[in-house]
Amino acid sequence: MKHMKSMVLREIRKAEEEPLVMEDLDTPEPSENQILIRITSSGVCRSNLHMIEGDWVQNGVPARLPIIPGHEVIGRVEKVGENVDYFRKGDLAGVQPLWTACGRCEYCLSGRENLCPNKQVTGETLDGGYSEYMLADARYAYRIPAGIDETRDAPLFCPGVTAYRAVKQARLGPAKEVFIFGVGGVGHLAIQFAKLSGARVTAVSTGERHRDLALRVGADDVIDPGRDYSGISKFSRAADRAIVFAPSQAAIDAALKTLKPGGRLVLGVFGGASSIPFVDEIEIVGSVIGTRKDMNEVLRLASTGKVRIEAERYRLDQANEVLLRLKRGQINGRAVLNP
Ligand SMILES: [Zn+2]
Ligand SMILES: [Zn+2]
Q1: Ligand nearest to the CA of residue 116, numbered in listed order
Q2: Which of 7, 134, 217, 292 is the one with CA 20 to 30 A from 71?
Q3: For residue range 231-269, what is the model confidence (pLDDT) as tens digits?
Q4: Residue by residue, what is the 3-state secondary structure of 135-149?
């Protein structure tokens, strides 16, 4: 049996306490519908940090311990199960958070498989990408088109599809003004997708480096709202749409204030609307990861160079350090591990 190096979460701990331990594990064997992937890039997501620190234990995440985190992955197919005809050894393959869905429920049957109650989530209900190898269900893995960098572009598979679906949910168009709150791993991609729709894009971020990144990837304007978001009052009723990825209630409240009557708020983070002015007929909608259709559209756009991942690269054994940097807001764009 071959061995692999993996960063394993054995017990919930704070990022400061080096929660992940590098272990030598048996490389798993793919069953009939699975593929084994030798990972070339694996993104580090803020939701990995939430899971590892125990913020989501009450929601059943992680579903088990020990677990290998990581849910945005690119790699080379190493082995295929006997029923797999979509992949061959050596192909480039990608895996997103939606590891598999049931294919039979009302959501799967209506093209909303990201809401499937029986879904498996990569790195949360089963082992993910902080590892040299991982298993994927071939029916929910993706072929990678030319033009995508296998050592950098794993983030297309979580922030990429998350940003894309949120922008779709915002129903943008050439005459629309959209404010995007939060310019991290997801936000910097949402800005690019929103620009492709023709909308005018204003990025809102409390961090100077993040505002620079927003301008670099094509935002028309940036706003520093101040730590408490009080600076946003100047932009009251300025936007047709607002999309929130900044993980704070203050950001959500500020986003609501920027909306014109009839506007639409898209939430890509946990939180609520503390007060909704019903007379303005504001719509609020959540957006969570994306379907296989969304994912394939993201890959198509990325392969033609229309969106670009800004990534910092790290070794697999630096995963603890990366989580800490992410917690402290010190990552520009996205961090990827290169096993
Ligand atoms: Zn993620
Ligand atoms: Zn289903």
Answers
A1: 2
A2: 217
A3: 999 999 999 999 999 989 999 999 999 999 999 999 998
A4: EEEHHHEEECCCCCC
